[in-house]
Write a structure and sequence with these properties.
homotetramer; 203 residues; mainly alpha; 8 helices
Chain lengths: 203, 203, 203, 203
């Protein structure tokens, strides 16, 4: 029992490290405009303002990964022990979390330009993949309550199963809508993390 | 009670991770001068010396985030439990902390050049936003002592409330003064973290 | 006894930090294609697709470091105390782990081009070095059971010794085969971490 | 007493985070040679070989920071409590540790070229500064045994004081010798961390 607790602790700390680093690396996508030494203050202000897709993408990615961290957190509170299968399912989720700065940089660079549809679809598609990984991780833990604590209430377990499943079609919708209107696509992504933050907050 | 303690522990560790990474990433803004293979020793020395705004901005940002970490530390010692609202208020603060390398790179690139006023205003403005986030976080915890430990002395709680409020107008002053004199603006920012470090040290 | 436990704890946390950061920095090798503002959606999609060696290298490196972390994890469960020699053997392993993003970037840049053989050999060669470091670390701990817990079963200790030794010739094979066929070389590297993940999973 | 222990724990974890990140970021200084798509395997091999100063600088910096981390580790085992003064002395040390990737990149870029003397002097000079910060931190803790555990043996405390003092003149020698011969300068820096690793190992 003692060893099991320690096990979960190290995995949580490791996962938290990856979440924290991935979130902090997002800020590296905020680029200083290169205007040369003679750029006037108003030119710099304009260049900074024109980078708004970067700021939107940064905030959306940061918020989404933060909400995921909170959920990861909540999931681990119900978990009693860790198996190798769970370790690798968690590793798959972390792989996708570390990838997030890449589509964020992509949408920052191409939003509102001809390549916008592809960049937005890749961005939303990353969150489809992360949602699937979350469901996979939860399934490894919760299927026949294999890794759950005995005091984890069954209705809470079911509520989590339902709420995780909802993420996949919603991000799929954002991915498909990228090919029609990139503003709708990023809007869905931004709306989703705010929605989840608000409902989590009220619980 | 046991679960609550663990909860705070994981949030502290996660926050510490973000603070530590954000502080370390600041050093990526220190750029090696690209002078080509034939640059003489004195040309390299000169180029390094001319980068002094980078060093000042790095030190100021590092010092400011360090002082914030110390305060974050002190705040958590008074906190008994964590709610989802507190989690997201903390997330908002962390978002702004991870952003710090961006205005630091901006002021490093444009200080003393025509774009200086805008770069300095964005730099000081980031700390206005962080001060507001700190006040928000503290308010969520301390309003009607919602999340505080019962043994947290009321006069300490009030002293913290007062000292956090002071940050907002002081950084606003630095932001406004950027448009008149960039040296005054960065001087206020540098002075503030040193002042806070000294008064914290004497407590 | 109490101090020894704490000792191992800090070393594990430090090592986990290095593993987590090295894994997250791998994502910095995923580059946004620079096609200019007028690139069409299909040009962007094509450019992203042509970067497939980056994605393969990223996944292989991430998976390999993840498997190593799981093994590092398993090794530490058998260890009772830490000596300075073990600390530096562990440091040598961590040095090589932090290096991984470099050969990953190298193979991403040169795979399928004339420089491919050298890039692939350096990539696989890095894992030869890491395998050697792992064996060294384990030898410091397990030779005459110097640092092992008294309750670590002898057959488990021997099984670990055997399984670690297998890594060296397999990665050497990948290194040599890089000069004949780069696809075989990266294929061995990818196959190995998947194989290890699967056998670990079934244990 | 309980609160004090927790205090030290959080500071250690935070410091470990900064050490771990700074060590991992060093690897970002290892650059992939940009030779274009038609570079032959032998051209790539040559370009990689010519980057040897990068590898030497990376290894020296990693080894030096690792030895510092081990010493930081050893120091904290003797420490009973943390004051704000100690917190900021530790912060000053961490600031310098995060800076290390900068002189490492500098010496990687300019070693063996005309700017070599300045780059080597800045490199060694960074370690002079870090040695001073270490002595400062230890002084805050050990002066009149202010923050030490009561069971910390006096002869151990004195031995640490002596061994830390030795670092300053040795790195000063490396700094001065940079202006005569850069190989001697980096040789001293490399020799020192290996020497410290070996004597620590034998203790």
């Amino acid at each position: 029992m003692h060893t099991e607790e320690k096990e979960t602790g190290r995995l949580e700390a490791f996962s938290d490290g990856v979440f924290a680093i991935a979130m902090t690396l997002l800020a590296l996508d905020l680029k200083v405009p290169h205007l040369g030494d003679r750029a006037s203050a108003s030119e710099l202000a304009l260049a900074l303002a024109q980078q708004w897709p970067s700021y939107l993408a940064f905030t959306t990615s940061f918020g989404t990964v933060l909400v995921m961290w909170v959920h990861h957190h909540g999931m681990f509170r119900l978990i009693r022990k860790v198996t190798s299968g769970f370790l690798f399912a968690n590793g798959f989720l972390l792989l996708l979390v570390t990838v997030v700065p890449f589509p964020t940089a992509l949408i920052s660079a191409y939003f509102g330009k001809p390549g916008s549809a592809v960049a937005s679809a890749v961005y939303a598609g990353t969150f489809v993949a992360i949602s699937i990984a979350f469901n996979l991780l939860w399934r490894v833990a919760a299927h026949e309550r294999a890794l759950l604590r005995s005091d984890a209430p069954e209705h809470v377990v079911r509520a989590i199963t339902r709420s995780y499943l909802a993420g996949v079609p919603l991000y799929l919708l954002a991915t498909v809508s990228a090919f029609y209107n990139e503003y709708v696509s990023i809007g869905i992504c931004s709306g989703l993390w705010i929605f989840w933050a608000v409902i989590t907050r009220n619980k």
